[in-house]
Amino acid sequence: MSSASNGATLRHVLPSGMVALIRRNPGAPTVSVRGELRVGAALEPPELGGLAVFTGAALTRGAGERSFQQIVAETEGLGCSVSAGGGTQASGFSGKALAEDLPLVLEILADMLIRPTFPAAEVERLRGQFLTGLRESEQDTGYRASVAARAMLYPPDHPFSRPSSGSLESVARITRDDLARFHRRYHPALASIAVVGDIDPPAVVAELERRFAGWRPDSAPEPVSIPDAPPLAGVRRGDIAMPGKVQSDLIWAVHGLRRSAPDYYAAMVANMILGQIGMGGRLGEQVREEQGMAYYCYSDFEADLGAGPWVAAAGVSPENVERATEAILAEIALFREEGPTNEELDDARAYLTGSLVIGLETSDGIAGSLLGIERHSLGLDYIERYPAIIATVDRDQVHAAAQKYLSTESYILSVAGPV
Fold this sequence. Notes:
Elements: E1 2-5, E2 9-13, E3 19-24, E4 31-37, H1 51-58, E5 62-63, E6 66-67, H2 68-77, E7 81-86, E8 91-97, H3 102-114, H4 120-137, H5 141-153, H6 168-173, H7 176-183, E9 191-197, H8 201-211, E10 235-241, E11 248-255, H9 264-275, H10 281-290, E12 296-303, E13 307-316, H11 321-338, H12 342-359, H13 363-375, H14 382-391, H15 395-405, E14 411-417
Parallel strand pairs: 3-9, 10-14
Antiparallel strand pairs: 1-2, 2-3, 4-8, 4-9, 5-6, 7-8, 11-13, 11-14, 12-13
Helix pairs in contact: 1-7, 9-10, 9-12, 9-15, 10-11, 11-15, 12-14
């Protein structure tokens, strides 16, 4: 058990190994609680796709001595809320309450994490909701293009090769015992919880230690480990025919980078310039605004514990698929060749610095930032250091990141739409 503080945030390790991040936000109307466990779909068997998401969502359906209906009635009666869910690399939970009701929210969250009951009837209701959502997703061209792109970009046994939501077949196969078995992977040594609001930090520490004192798993923690994917060679294209649709969605994709990569900040700035800032960066300006070939066009990457995809996506009229693809490739090639302009670099750096400030305007935003800082071991003073980090990213670094990761010779292209 240990504590550390930078004056603004208290970091306290509970006896169980769970990390608490507590920050007082004077005058905040509510207290925000956000947490995560580094347990996700990367640990589930491929044939049980969706298990991590299903398990996370089922935590609210009955925990400790409370039924789902009792949890809802108690929290909504006081204007509080609790929620939970799963993802590929981590599972999350959250709560919101007035300061005087924080003990109730922490009590329910502790029951959800330590003592979920997985009632059979609630499990089946939840399964029905997931299956309905998946059926709807199957009719979405953007979703189908994304699923196909991941399947081509990563080997079949890689956790990024499939959606964390699973498939109709895999979700139908999951049993209550599967949920309980996956839940046993939840371990306090893999957990972090952030509490932000007009609170007394020592009192919150005492409440957390009381509520989570009974979390004593029998097994050792098994954190998520994401392997690197083999490099791409050449171009792979997949076309998904969806008769009756009036729009095609296309995705260009390459392997991206981990959050821990030394050139992460340079890549982040490159992505802002290529397909984020303004109406969608260079891609949005050229493909959508100037050439009028897309309803939307942007780029994005997933840099976390593992190296997710770096994508450029567009929604287009079916007759414009090939022209839009050529325009996206041309813009990527130009960015690789020339790099950013000084004006683009200044705009991107200003936007990234400003967005951090905006994100810290709410207790929930602060709590989310603290979780990211803990997940990636960035240090309690990261928020204060961040503007200087972004300011030091120069043009050569951004250009080098674009040349390293973006390619017009080896990439995945996925298109979903009418024949």
